Protein backbone atom coordinates (compact mmCIF):
# COMPACT_ATOMS: atom_id res chain seq x y z
CA UNK A 1 0.00 0.00 0.00
CA UNK A 2 2.75 2.43 0.91
CA UNK A 3 4.63 1.51 -2.26
CA UNK A 4 1.55 2.26 -4.35
CA UNK A 5 1.06 5.62 -2.67
CA UNK A 6 4.71 6.48 -3.35
CA UNK A 7 4.41 5.57 -7.05
CA UNK A 8 1.24 7.63 -7.35
CA UNK A 9 2.97 10.63 -5.76
CA UNK A 10 5.85 10.33 -8.22
CA UNK A 11 3.48 10.21 -11.17
CA UNK A 12 1.65 13.28 -9.91
CA UNK A 13 4.99 15.04 -9.55
CA UNK A 14 5.85 14.19 -13.17
CA UNK A 15 2.47 15.47 -14.32
CA UNK A 16 3.01 18.73 -12.43
CA UNK A 17 6.43 19.08 -14.05
CA UNK A 18 4.88 18.67 -17.50
CA UNK A 19 2.19 21.23 -16.61
CA UNK A 20 4.87 23.65 -15.47
CA UNK A 21 6.71 23.07 -18.76
CA UNK A 22 3.57 23.77 -20.80
CA UNK A 23 2.97 26.95 -18.82
CA UNK A 24 6.47 28.13 -19.57
CA UNK A 25 5.95 27.24 -23.23
CA UNK A 26 2.82 29.40 -23.36
CA UNK A 27 4.60 32.29 -21.68
CA UNK A 28 7.44 32.01 -24.19
CA UNK A 29 5.24 32.85 -27.17
CA UNK A 30 6.58 35.75 -29.13
CA UNK A 31 4.87 39.07 -29.60
CA UNK A 32 2.64 39.45 -32.68
CA UNK A 33 4.34 40.54 -35.87
CA UNK A 34 2.18 42.67 -38.17
CA UNK A 35 4.54 42.58 -41.17
CA UNK A 36 2.69 39.72 -42.84
CA UNK A 37 -0.68 41.39 -42.12
CA UNK A 38 0.45 44.56 -43.85
CA UNK A 39 1.61 42.55 -46.88
CA UNK A 40 -1.77 40.88 -47.09
CA UNK A 41 -3.62 44.18 -46.83
CA UNK A 42 -1.49 45.75 -49.55
CA UNK A 43 -2.07 42.75 -51.80
CA UNK A 44 -5.85 42.81 -51.26
CA UNK A 45 -5.99 46.58 -51.72
CA UNK A 46 -4.15 46.30 -55.03
CA UNK A 47 -6.51 43.55 -56.24
CA UNK A 48 -9.58 45.56 -55.22
CA UNK A 49 -8.35 48.67 -56.95
CA UNK A 50 -7.76 46.71 -60.18
CA UNK A 51 -11.19 45.12 -59.93
CA UNK A 52 -12.90 48.46 -59.48
CA UNK A 53 -10.91 49.91 -62.35
CA UNK A 54 -11.54 47.19 -64.93
CA UNK A 55 -14.41 44.97 -63.79
CA UNK A 56 -16.67 47.51 -62.14
CA UNK A 57 -15.94 50.84 -63.82
CA UNK A 58 -19.34 52.17 -62.73
CA UNK A 59 -19.87 52.53 -58.99
CA UNK A 60 -22.87 50.91 -57.34
CA UNK A 61 -24.59 47.58 -57.66
CA UNK A 62 -26.31 48.34 -60.91
CA UNK A 63 -23.62 46.67 -62.97
CA UNK A 64 -24.11 43.61 -65.10
CA UNK A 65 -24.43 40.25 -63.28
CA UNK A 66 -21.36 38.70 -64.88
CA UNK A 67 -19.27 41.60 -63.74
CA UNK A 68 -20.41 41.01 -60.20
CA UNK A 69 -19.59 37.29 -60.44
CA UNK A 70 -16.12 37.99 -61.82
CA UNK A 71 -15.54 40.56 -59.08
CA UNK A 72 -16.56 38.11 -56.32
CA UNK A 73 -14.52 35.22 -57.77
CA UNK A 74 -11.36 37.29 -58.19
CA UNK A 75 -11.72 38.80 -54.73
CA UNK A 76 -12.12 35.37 -53.08
CA UNK A 77 -9.14 34.00 -54.99
CA UNK A 78 -7.05 36.98 -53.91
CA UNK A 79 -8.21 36.48 -50.34
CA UNK A 80 -7.16 32.82 -50.39
CA UNK A 81 -3.81 33.69 -51.89
CA UNK A 82 -3.22 36.39 -49.32
CA UNK A 83 -3.80 34.00 -46.43
CA UNK A 84 -1.78 31.22 -48.11
CA UNK A 85 1.30 33.38 -47.91
CA UNK A 86 3.24 32.54 -44.69
CA UNK A 87 6.49 33.53 -43.03
CA UNK A 88 8.95 31.60 -40.88
CA UNK A 89 11.78 33.04 -38.84
CA UNK A 90 15.40 32.00 -39.18
CA UNK A 91 15.22 29.61 -36.20
CA UNK A 92 11.89 28.04 -37.21
CA UNK A 93 11.05 25.07 -39.38
CA UNK A 94 7.47 24.45 -40.49
CA UNK A 95 6.02 20.94 -40.90
CA UNK A 96 3.58 20.99 -43.84
CA UNK A 97 0.98 18.25 -44.35
CA UNK A 98 -0.98 17.75 -47.56
CA UNK A 99 -4.27 15.90 -47.10
CA UNK A 100 -2.95 14.69 -43.71
CA UNK A 101 0.31 13.31 -45.13
CA UNK A 102 3.75 14.74 -44.59
CA UNK A 103 4.68 17.00 -47.50
CA UNK A 104 7.89 18.81 -46.61
CA UNK A 105 9.64 21.11 -44.15
CA UNK A 106 9.40 24.82 -44.99
CA UNK A 107 11.38 27.81 -43.81
CA UNK A 108 13.01 30.08 -43.08
CA UNK A 109 11.56 33.09 -44.92
CA UNK A 110 8.39 33.46 -46.98
CA UNK A 111 6.66 30.34 -48.24
CA UNK A 112 3.37 29.54 -49.97
CA UNK A 113 0.72 26.98 -49.11
CA UNK A 114 -1.74 25.57 -51.60
CA UNK A 115 -5.14 26.82 -50.44
CA UNK A 116 -7.46 24.21 -48.92
CA UNK A 117 -4.87 21.47 -49.52
CA UNK A 118 -1.76 22.18 -47.47
CA UNK A 119 -1.86 22.49 -43.71
CA UNK A 120 0.75 23.69 -41.18
CA UNK A 121 0.99 20.97 -38.53
CA UNK A 122 3.70 22.30 -36.24
CA UNK A 123 6.42 24.94 -36.05
CA UNK A 124 9.69 23.57 -34.66
CA UNK A 125 12.24 25.76 -32.92
CA UNK A 126 15.76 24.52 -33.75
CA UNK A 127 17.62 26.79 -31.31
CA UNK A 128 19.44 25.46 -28.25
CA UNK A 129 17.10 25.35 -25.28
CA UNK A 130 17.59 24.77 -21.58
CA UNK A 131 15.50 22.52 -19.38
CA UNK A 132 15.71 22.29 -15.59
CA UNK A 133 14.73 19.01 -13.92
CA UNK A 134 15.20 17.38 -10.54
CA UNK A 135 14.88 14.12 -8.62
CA UNK A 136 13.40 14.20 -5.12
CA UNK A 137 14.14 11.67 -2.36
CA UNK A 138 16.01 9.22 -4.55
CA UNK A 139 18.11 6.42 -3.07
CA UNK A 140 21.76 6.18 -4.08
CA UNK A 141 23.74 2.96 -4.45
CA UNK A 142 24.67 3.04 -0.74
CA UNK A 143 21.04 3.66 0.38
CA UNK A 144 21.31 7.40 1.03
CA UNK A 145 18.32 9.61 0.23
CA UNK A 146 19.32 12.69 -1.80
CA UNK A 147 17.61 15.48 -3.75
CA UNK A 148 19.39 16.41 -6.99
CA UNK A 149 18.72 19.44 -9.20
CA UNK A 150 20.11 19.66 -12.73
CA UNK A 151 19.58 21.28 -16.10
CA UNK A 152 20.38 20.27 -19.67
CA UNK A 153 20.95 22.03 -22.99
CA UNK A 154 19.29 20.35 -25.94
CA UNK A 155 18.24 21.13 -29.49
CA UNK A 156 16.24 19.66 -32.38
CA UNK A 157 18.43 18.62 -35.28
CA UNK A 158 15.72 16.80 -37.30
CA UNK A 159 12.38 18.71 -37.24
CA UNK A 160 10.59 15.97 -39.17
CA UNK A 161 11.31 13.30 -36.57
CA UNK A 162 10.60 15.62 -33.65
CA UNK A 163 7.17 16.41 -35.07
CA UNK A 164 6.16 12.96 -36.33
CA UNK A 165 7.86 10.47 -33.97
CA UNK A 166 6.65 11.90 -30.63
CA UNK A 167 3.55 13.85 -29.73
CA UNK A 168 5.11 16.44 -27.38
CA UNK A 169 8.87 16.32 -27.74
CA UNK A 170 9.52 18.95 -25.04
CA UNK A 171 7.64 17.00 -22.37
CA UNK A 172 9.29 13.79 -23.61
CA UNK A 173 12.75 15.27 -23.17
CA UNK A 174 11.88 16.48 -19.66
CA UNK A 175 10.58 13.09 -18.53
CA UNK A 176 13.49 11.23 -20.14
CA UNK A 177 16.03 13.45 -18.39
CA UNK A 178 14.31 13.01 -15.06
CA UNK A 179 14.15 9.21 -15.44
CA UNK A 180 17.80 9.06 -16.49
CA UNK A 181 18.81 11.14 -13.46
CA UNK A 182 17.00 8.76 -11.08
CA UNK A 183 18.53 5.75 -12.78
CA UNK A 184 22.08 7.11 -12.52
CA UNK A 185 21.56 8.09 -8.88
CA UNK A 186 20.53 4.55 -8.00
CA UNK A 187 23.62 3.11 -9.73
CA UNK A 188 26.21 5.27 -7.94
CA UNK A 189 26.99 5.94 -4.31
CA UNK A 190 27.02 9.32 -2.58
CA UNK A 191 30.82 9.59 -2.60
CA UNK A 192 30.91 9.30 -6.38
CA UNK A 193 28.22 11.96 -6.68
CA UNK A 194 30.16 14.39 -4.52
CA UNK A 195 33.63 13.70 -5.94
CA UNK A 196 33.00 12.81 -9.61
CA UNK A 197 30.22 15.10 -10.73
CA UNK A 198 31.56 15.26 -14.29
CA UNK A 199 31.32 11.48 -14.62
CA UNK A 200 27.71 11.50 -13.40
CA UNK A 201 26.80 14.26 -15.86
CA UNK A 202 28.33 12.29 -18.73
CA UNK A 203 26.38 9.18 -17.77
CA UNK A 204 23.11 11.11 -17.60
CA UNK A 205 23.77 12.64 -21.02
CA UNK A 206 24.43 9.25 -22.59
CA UNK A 207 21.31 7.80 -20.95
CA UNK A 208 19.09 10.58 -22.29
CA UNK A 209 20.57 10.49 -25.79
CA UNK A 210 19.70 6.79 -26.12
CA UNK A 211 16.04 7.81 -26.29
CA UNK A 212 16.10 11.30 -27.79
CA UNK A 213 18.30 10.45 -30.79
CA UNK A 214 15.41 8.52 -32.36
CA UNK A 215 13.28 11.66 -32.01
CA UNK A 216 15.72 13.90 -33.86
CA UNK A 217 16.85 15.58 -30.61
CA UNK A 218 20.37 15.80 -29.22
CA UNK A 219 21.48 16.67 -25.68
CA UNK A 220 24.56 18.86 -25.75
CA UNK A 221 25.31 19.37 -22.07
CA UNK A 222 24.01 18.42 -18.62
CA UNK A 223 25.00 20.18 -15.39
CA UNK A 224 24.19 19.13 -11.81
CA UNK A 225 23.45 22.32 -9.90
CA UNK A 226 22.63 21.09 -6.39
CA UNK A 227 22.86 17.93 -4.28
CA UNK A 228 20.94 18.07 -1.02
CA UNK A 229 22.08 15.58 1.61
CA UNK A 230 20.00 14.82 4.75
CA UNK A 231 21.04 16.80 7.81
CA UNK A 232 21.81 13.59 9.71
CA UNK A 233 24.64 12.84 7.28
CA UNK A 234 26.07 16.32 6.94
CA UNK A 235 27.99 16.14 10.25
CA UNK A 236 29.50 12.76 9.43
CA UNK A 237 30.48 13.91 5.95
CA UNK A 238 32.13 17.02 7.38
CA UNK A 239 34.12 14.89 9.83
CA UNK A 240 35.20 12.57 7.04
CA UNK A 241 36.30 15.53 4.93
CA UNK A 242 38.22 17.01 7.86
CA UNK A 243 39.98 13.69 8.48
CA UNK A 244 40.91 13.47 4.82
CA UNK A 245 42.38 16.97 4.91
CA UNK A 246 44.41 16.17 8.04
CA UNK A 247 45.66 12.99 6.42
CA UNK A 248 46.71 14.89 3.33
CA UNK A 249 48.46 17.55 5.42
CA UNK A 250 50.41 15.02 7.43
CA UNK A 251 51.37 13.14 4.29
CA UNK A 252 52.71 16.29 2.69
CA UNK A 253 54.62 17.16 5.87
CA UNK A 254 56.21 13.70 5.98
CA UNK A 255 57.21 13.98 2.32
CA UNK A 256 58.77 17.38 3.04
CA UNK A 257 60.73 15.93 5.97
CA UNK A 258 62.03 13.14 3.77
CA UNK A 259 63.13 15.62 1.13
CA UNK A 260 64.84 17.80 3.76
CA UNK A 261 66.68 14.77 5.17
CA UNK A 262 67.94 13.86 1.72
CA UNK A 263 69.21 17.38 1.13
CA UNK A 264 70.91 17.45 4.55
CA UNK A 265 72.58 14.15 3.75
CA UNK A 266 73.97 15.64 0.56
CA UNK A 267 75.14 18.73 2.47
CA UNK A 268 76.92 16.57 5.05
CA UNK A 269 78.81 14.70 2.34
CA UNK A 270 79.87 18.01 0.78
CA UNK A 271 80.97 19.52 4.12
CA UNK A 272 82.93 16.35 4.93
CA UNK A 273 84.94 16.75 1.75
CA UNK A 274 85.38 20.54 1.93
CA UNK A 275 86.22 21.98 5.37
CA UNK A 276 86.31 25.48 4.00
CA UNK A 277 82.68 25.16 2.93
CA UNK A 278 81.75 24.20 6.50
CA UNK A 279 83.62 27.20 7.88
CA UNK A 280 81.86 29.51 5.40
CA UNK A 281 78.56 28.04 6.48
CA UNK A 282 79.40 28.77 10.13
CA UNK A 283 80.26 32.37 9.26
CA UNK A 284 77.01 32.66 7.31
CA UNK A 285 75.03 31.47 10.33
CA UNK A 286 76.77 34.03 12.56
CA UNK A 287 76.11 36.76 10.01
CA UNK A 288 72.43 35.90 9.83
CA UNK A 289 72.21 36.03 13.62
CA UNK A 290 73.82 39.47 13.73
CA UNK A 291 71.51 40.82 11.03
CA UNK A 292 68.51 40.22 13.25
CA UNK A 293 69.71 42.93 15.66
CA UNK A 294 70.30 40.74 18.69
CA UNK A 295 72.17 42.60 21.48
CA UNK A 296 73.96 39.46 22.64
CA UNK A 297 75.06 36.38 20.78
CA UNK A 298 76.47 33.23 22.37
CA UNK A 299 79.16 31.55 20.29
CA UNK A 300 80.41 28.07 21.34
CA UNK A 301 84.13 27.69 22.09
CA UNK A 302 84.37 24.97 19.50
CA UNK A 303 83.62 27.47 16.76
CA UNK A 304 86.33 29.88 17.88
CA UNK A 305 88.80 27.03 18.21
CA UNK A 306 87.97 25.81 14.73
CA UNK A 307 88.43 29.29 13.27
CA UNK A 308 91.30 30.44 15.52
CA UNK A 309 93.66 30.88 12.64
CA UNK A 310 91.08 32.76 10.57
CA UNK A 311 89.97 35.20 13.32
CA UNK A 312 86.16 35.24 13.65
CA UNK A 313 85.06 38.83 12.92
CA UNK A 314 88.42 40.23 14.29
CA UNK A 315 87.86 38.96 17.84
CA UNK A 316 91.34 37.51 18.05
CA UNK A 317 92.97 40.76 16.89
CA UNK A 318 90.92 42.72 19.39
CA UNK A 319 91.96 40.42 22.21
CA UNK A 320 95.61 40.74 21.22
CA UNK A 321 95.38 44.54 21.30
CA UNK A 322 93.86 44.45 24.73
CA UNK A 323 96.51 42.05 26.01
CA UNK A 324 99.29 44.29 24.64
CA UNK A 325 97.84 47.40 26.32
CA UNK A 326 97.60 45.66 29.68
CA UNK A 327 101.16 44.39 29.39
CA UNK A 328 102.48 47.88 28.64
CA UNK A 329 100.77 49.22 31.74
CA UNK A 330 102.26 46.52 33.94
CA UNK A 331 105.94 47.20 32.93
CA UNK A 332 107.51 50.21 35.03
CA UNK A 333 108.85 53.20 33.16
CA UNK A 334 112.69 53.59 33.59
CA UNK A 335 114.20 57.02 34.45
CA UNK A 336 117.91 58.03 34.02
CA UNK A 337 119.99 57.58 37.25
CA UNK A 338 121.97 60.78 36.92
CA UNK A 339 118.91 62.91 36.39
CA UNK A 340 116.94 63.73 39.50
CA UNK A 341 114.42 66.41 40.01
CA UNK A 342 115.47 69.38 42.09
CA UNK A 343 114.48 69.26 45.72
CA UNK A 344 111.03 70.63 46.34
CA UNK A 345 110.06 70.61 42.64
CA UNK A 346 106.81 68.84 41.74
CA UNK A 347 106.91 65.86 39.50
CA UNK A 348 106.20 66.44 35.84
CA UNK A 349 102.64 65.77 34.82
CA UNK A 350 101.35 65.38 38.38
CA UNK A 351 99.00 68.08 39.66
CA UNK A 352 99.54 69.60 43.09
CA UNK A 353 103.09 68.21 43.29
CA UNK A 354 101.92 64.57 43.55
CA UNK A 355 103.85 62.05 41.44
CA UNK A 356 101.98 59.55 39.23
CA UNK A 357 102.61 56.69 36.90
CA UNK A 358 106.10 55.50 36.23
CA UNK A 359 107.76 58.27 38.34
CA UNK A 360 105.97 57.18 41.49
CA UNK A 361 106.88 53.59 40.82
CA UNK A 362 110.54 54.62 40.24
CA UNK A 363 110.67 56.42 43.56
CA UNK A 364 109.21 53.48 45.29
CA UNK A 365 111.88 51.29 43.72
CA UNK A 366 114.79 53.57 44.88
CA UNK A 367 113.57 53.75 48.44
CA UNK A 368 111.21 56.72 48.42
CA UNK A 369 112.00 60.44 48.57
CA UNK A 370 115.47 61.98 49.28
CA UNK A 371 114.41 62.65 52.82
CA UNK A 372 113.59 59.04 53.32
CA UNK A 373 117.01 58.02 51.99
CA UNK A 374 118.74 60.36 54.48
Describe the model.
With 374 residues, the chain is α+β, with helices and mostly antiparallel strands. The chain has 3 domains: 32-125, no CATH class; 129-229, Tetrahydropterin Synthase, Chain A; 241-320, no CATH class. The chain contains 13 helices and 8 strands. A 3-stranded antiparallel sheet has the order 3-2-5. The chain has a 3-stranded antiparallel sheet with strand order 6-7-8. It has a two-stranded antiparallel sheet with strand order 1-4. β2 and β3 (101-106) form a beta hairpin. The protein is elongated, with a radius of gyration of 54 Å. The relative contact order is 0.05.
Estimate nothing, just give the exact number of structural domains.
3
The overall strand count is 8
Q: So, the CATH homologous superfamily of the largest domain? A: Band 7 domain
| Structural category | alpha+beta
The topology string of helices and strands comes to HHHEEEEEEEHHHHEHHHHHH
Rounded radius of gyration (Å): 54 Å
Strand line-up across the major sheet: 3-2-5
- Overall pLDDT score: 75
Helix content: 55-70%
